[in-house]
Amino acid sequence: MNKNLNAKEITSWVYALHADIKDAPYFEGFWPIPHGVSLNSYIVKSDKVALIDLYRDWEDAPEKMKSQMSSIGIDLCDIHYLVLNHLESDHSGFLKDFRKMCPNAKIVTTKKGAELVEKFCKAVNDNEKDFQNTAVQVVKTGDSIDLGQGVVLHFTETPNVHWPETMMTYEEKSKVLFSCDAFGSYGCVGTKENPSRIFDDECTEEELIFFEKEALRYYANIVASFSHFVKQAIDKFSSTQIKVVAPSHGLVWRKNPKRIINDYIRYAGYNTGGELEKEICVIWGSMYGNTKIGLDAVIEGIKEEGVNVNILEIPSTNASFVLGEAYKAKGIVLAMPTYEYKMYPPMAYILNLFNRKHFSGKKALRIGSWGWIGGAKREYDEAVLPLKWEEIESYEWQGLPCAEDKTTLKERGRELARQVKNS
Ligand code: FEO
Q1: How far away, in angstroms, is 163 Cα from ligand 1 center?
Q2: Distance between Cα 230 and ligand 1 center (Å)
Q3: Residue 29: its pLDDT value, please?
Q4: Which is the closest atom of ligand 1 to the Cα of 222?
């Protein structure tokens, strides 16, 4: 464990703390994080000291946080306010211990947040008492806390970004927005050479593009269900001067905060009537290769129309990455065989997630083979009904596709590509 990271100064009264979670296989227990994820907290230090957001006890993250606080001369007991923008356990897992250690710190959160504070601090066995000893101050939009010397925290409720209790905190003197999950991404921010890296201006353009890609995957996995709320939240800050975007996962954007804000505006638009990328995401699974042979003809047709195509095989490509790529694409090809009268099960799972995340606005083509009987079509048609996609006429064949099948499939690919180009 590297405990020797220092807090990173944003201004002389605002500091970023972070723990890179490198070895955990999953976020939320099932989204793979091969590049890790960061947990960020912030110290705002004036006459009084506020800690903004917390960690879960994950790979010694609280120890790293305390060590970084020490680097700016702050002990947990010096904290007057613990601001909890969001209570999901990646930010509140350490809360129970924090309350034991810092009984004098006042917890600041929304009304719904206050209810969750008690739920996440309950005693879990007979030998333990409930830790409800710390005061909780409920805040709403428009409320503020003056830390002294012009350093003031302003609170804005931003429900459902990502849970209903969520708020964001804005410090007026530094013009830093503490946005919690919003504007966040997967990916460790530190590197081997620079473990304390956290700012956008410490990254190359290539690294920023990597974080934007991980931000989109994070968005498609975690936030996409709530895009309408994301738009409302961003609108609430439309007349606020934001010099720094300080999320609880991923980079702190101080050089170009507009970049991640504009990314999130675009992401929120992908499933709420905004423009999708004029590209096609092909998602395919095949038991014995017969569906794949037909799919190759579709791909040939798409390529002849010059439309960018991204091809993902399932289940070998985890659904997290499928969502990340499919979310932004205007065109979708779903290629799968019939399995026991229904869809190929890995594809049924993908479509279930598309529905949960409201992946709307697509132009879609479904194709596939069947062995002794079909049936995927019926289940597929029911599954995509809520999504209201524009469908190219689907195509199925028994066993291997013949030359005529391949001609038709190629033309269906061309037709989808033309529609994507002209959308
Ligand atoms: Fe990073 Fe919704 O928690």
Answers
A1: 8
A2: 14
A3: 95
A4: 2
- Ligand 1 binding site (Cβ under 6 Å of any ligand atom): 86, 88, 90-91, 162, 181, 248-249
Check if the beta carbon of residue 301 is closer than 8 Å to that of residue 352. no
Q: What range does the domain containing 133 cover?
A: 3-269
User: Residue 181 Cα, ligand 1 centroid: separation in angstroms?
Assistant: 5
Q: Which of 269, 286, 317 is the last residue of a domain?
A: 269
Distance CA 371, CA 392 (A): 23
pLDDT score of 5: 85
Question: Which residue, judged by its Cα, is nearest atom 3 of ligand 1?
Answer: 88
Confidence at residue 131, expressed as pLDDT on a 0 to 100 scale: 59
Q: Examine the domain organization and report whether 74 and 119 are in the same domain.
A: yes
pLDDT for 337 equals 97
pTM of whole model > 0.90?
A: yes
How many angstroms separate the CA atoms of 177 and 18, rounded?
Answer: 16
- Residue 92 CA to ligand 1 center (angstroms) comes to 9
User: Which residue's alpha carbon is nearest to atom 1 within ligand 1?
Assistant: 181
286 and 379, same structural domain?
yes
Nearest atom in ligand 1 to the alpha carbon of residue 89 is 3
Ligand 1 atom nearest the C-alpha of 184 is 1
236 and 338 both lie in a single domain: no
Residue 20 parent element (H or E): strand 14-21
- Count Cβ neighbours within 10 Å for each residue of 109-141 and write b for 16 or more, e otherwise: bbebbbebbeeebeeeeeeeeebeebebeebee
Task: Choose one of 213, 235, 269: the last residue of a domain.
Answer: 269
Domain count, the chain: 2
Extract the residue ranges of the chain whose pLDDT is less than 70. 1-4, 129-133
User: What local confidence, expressed as pLDDT, does residue 132 receive?
Assistant: 59
pLDDT of residue 421: 97
Distance from Cα 102 to the centre of ligand 1, integer Å: 23
Angle at 172 between CA 171 and CA 175, to 5 degrees: 75
